[in-house]
Design brief:
This protein is mainly α. It is globular. A two-stranded parallel ribbon has the order 1-2. It is built from four helices and two strands. The structure holds flavin-adenine dinucleotide (FAD). The site of flavin-adenine dinucleotide has 21 residues, from helix 2.
């Protein structure tokens, strides 16, 4: 297992929690195995636990947050970082709306969990206005306007 200092990033250098957990060195029996201790994996495990699943094992090959989750900009933004037209073609207008709603919900869940679990985060409420997709006749400006999270 790599040291949490490798690679050294802003996040590993300023981490507030011990990210070392025991290696898996025996055969285990469990109800759910979640592979990958990034944002997706930790969130999946937590969501399952909150819904009453008792026996969950999270397997991470390096350390929690080793991937993109431990190296990103830390911005909690509602939105999609992909070509909206391609997504619309694939899932339709209603599907696109659903994707936006899920994205909004994700930001809300993060904010609620920071409060619920008393996470010592550097949460700052900010507003972002972007002109990125305003040229698109099918994207409403409200989607690109200030987003309160
Ligand atoms: C430079 C950068 C800046 C970004 N900025 C932002 C931002 O500001 N806001 C935002 O919302 N998003 C941002 N993102 C995107 C965001 O970081 C990713 O979408 C998110 O972290 C993905 O999380 P994940 O859990 O899916 O993947 P990861 O965080 O990559 O987690 C995957 C984990 O799985 C582990 N793993 C892989 N294979 C195995 C295996 N076989 N067995 C066990 N473990 C395994 C890896 O070690 C890793 O820890 C940014 C991304 C980058 C790269």
């Amino acid at each position: 297992m790599l040291s949490v200092e490798t690679p050294t990033t802003y996040y590993t250098a300023t981490r507030k929690y011990d990210l070392n957990f025991p290696d898996l060195d025996q055969v285990i029996d469990t109800e759910v195995v979640v592979i990958g201790g990034g944002f997706s994996g930790v969130n999946t495990a937590l969501e399952l636990a909150e819904r009453g699943v008792k026996d969950i094992v999270l397997l991470e090959s390096r350390y929690l947050g080793f991937g993109g989750s431990g190296r990103n900009g830390g911005h909690v933004m509602a939105g999609i970082g992909h070509d909206l037209e391609k997504i619309r073609k694939s899932v339709g207008e209603e599907g696109l709306q659903a994707v936006f709603e899920i994205s909004d919900l994700g930001a809300t869940i993060i904010r609620e969990r920071i409060a619920k679990y008393d996470i010592d985060s550097a949460w700052v409420l900010a507003f972002l206005r972007t002109l990125l997709h305003w040229k698109s006749p099918t994207v409403t400006p409200s989607r690109c306007g200030p987003q309160k999270v």
